[in-house]
Amino acid sequence: MASNATIFKATLQISDMDRQYYEDHTVTLARHPSETDERMMVRLLAFVLHAHEALSFGRGLSTEEEPALWQKDLTGAIQQWIEVGQPEEKTIRRACGRAKEVYIYIYGGRGADQWWEKHMATLNRLENLVVMNLSLDESQALASLAQPGMQLQCTIQEGQIWMASGENSVHIALTVLKSASGRLGQ
User: Fold this and answer.
1) What average pLDDT does the segment 171-184 reach?
2) By three-state DSSP, how is residue 9 classified?
3) Running DSSP on this structure, what letter comes out for residue 110?
4) In this structure, what CATH number is given to the domain that contains residue 109?
5) Which pLDDT band holds residue 33 (cuts at 50, 70, 90)?
6) 56 touches 69 (CB < 8 A)
7) Rg of the Cα trace of the chain?
8) In the chain, fewer beta carbons within 10 Å around the N or the C end?
């Protein structure tokens, strides 16, 4: 973890009815000084969506050789490589060559839409890549849940996501721009 990072701890109660995954996780997030609450919470959302005992956070923004999150098997082979934001096309191609599955969660409204338009043709050729878009309203609402000590109830059903902290609740419906099995978003 970076020495100037702000540390956040989150206790997650995950009920993923789509995957039949019901577990509690306690995670520590180091927020780099240049990282926003919005990006950090999108990383946390990605953790919730892919929760697994072998899923871990990468070393951070300054480490190009590692994703935001990844899951390795017992041999060290990368099963899932998960990025948030708008990664470079070269980074995505390299990830697709190293991992069985690659997921990108883009957010930020118009900037994310422009990024997708620019890279769509090339990225659609990568068979093991999934690209998901989180609307600006949803990512900002998610950022409002950020606290140094978070207790979040996370429910996923039929592709709909609810994250709640006490009285505050956020509903998220990700848009699939590209699936691994086919081409969308054209």
Assistant:
1) 83
2) strand
3) H
4) 3.10.640.10
5) confident
6) yes
7) 16
8) C
The answer, yes or no, to whether residue 183 has pLDDT greater than 60, is no
How many domains are contained in the chain?
1
pTM of this prediction exceeds 0.90: yes
CA angle 34, 37, 38 (to 5 degrees): 105
Residue 184 lies in a domain: no
DSSP calls for 66-107: S-SEEEE-TTS-EEEEEEES---HHHHHHHHHHEEEEEEEEE
Cα–Cα distance measured from residue 180 to residue 96, given in angstroms and rounded to the nearest whole number: 11
- Residue reference for tokens 């240049």: 34
Q: Note the helical H segments in 87-174.
A: 89-98, 110-123, 136-143
- Consecutive H or E run containing 49: helix 37-50
Beta-carbon count within 10 A of 124 CB: 17
Mean pLDDT for all residues in the chain: 92
Query: Which residues on neighbouring strands pair with residue 176, listed in sequence order?
Result: 132
Q: Which domain holds residue 167?
A: 6-178
